[in-house]
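Encode chain A's predicted structure.
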Amino acid sequence: MTGAFISWTPENGRTAELAEALGIPAHFIHRPGRFGLTGRYARQHAATRRLLQEQRPDTVVLMLPPAIALLSLGRRRTAPRLIVDLHTGFFLDPKWRWARGPALAAIRRRGGLAIVTNTHLQHECARAGVEAVVLHDVVQDRDALPHTGELLCPLSYANDEPVPEILAAARLTPELRWTLTGRAPDAVRAAAPGNVRFTGFVAPEEFDRLTRSSGAVIALTTRPHTMQRAGYEALHAGVPHVTSDFPELREFYGDAAAYTAPDGAAIAAAARSVLQDRDLFAERTRLLRAQRRAEQRPVLVQLTAALAAASPAHSGSAAPADLMPKGAA
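Encoded structure for chain A:
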């Protein structure tokens, strides 16, 4: 069995961890340069084609978005078996929504299998005739560090992050310290109260330390059906967190998280609550981590079987229905 997990990003924790769990290499293909986004995509397309021609994997696991990466796989008759890791942005980000229909049709024609993070997105795939399995980020066991009491807000300043509301919450809690990661726009820095610290971009090792030593993680989105990487990171580290009040998040985290509307006062109240009862939330998080890790093992086994089915040592391909989690709708 040979496989390759391809992501058109500089790095991605989900890609790296899922590739490791499946026993295949992760390839991060990101080629910035002249001519903006068009030039970057052209270079990444060429780099992906070279990788596939040189390594000739039996199966490619491709992270989407961007949907345009599908064009790099070549003709259906000669292309490797396809598994796609469909992030929520593939379905709901306004800049990629136009590509959802054509991309799902292309995945269906290739007999591809999709990985998604919740049943709503699984049903979206089913409506397009694409089989999908639900798999959250691969659960890791990381020991928490002595906590600093800081509230860590991992941000990319994307269009689904309630940044003004987070700043409003910080303004309402002058006794708390808020740490915002990512490259904050100048306007955000100018609007922040004095108890907000901006780290800028941090390396993965430093981000891991910040997460494990935080009093709590604030992982918020205004986009429904979205699982945030920051919430998974908090779970992995056994650190309490505040997240958005959406059904999928409540279903996954249960009583191990505090929930809030995208409103400054509500975020402030949730942050105070989780810090006040931090030991309780931390214990619930550790118990949930063990539970979710046990639950995802069968799906990882099924995906590994899908990779093996594409190997020349196996005849045919696994039927998509055989790859569905037991009891999936």
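The first strand starts at residue 3 and ends at 7.
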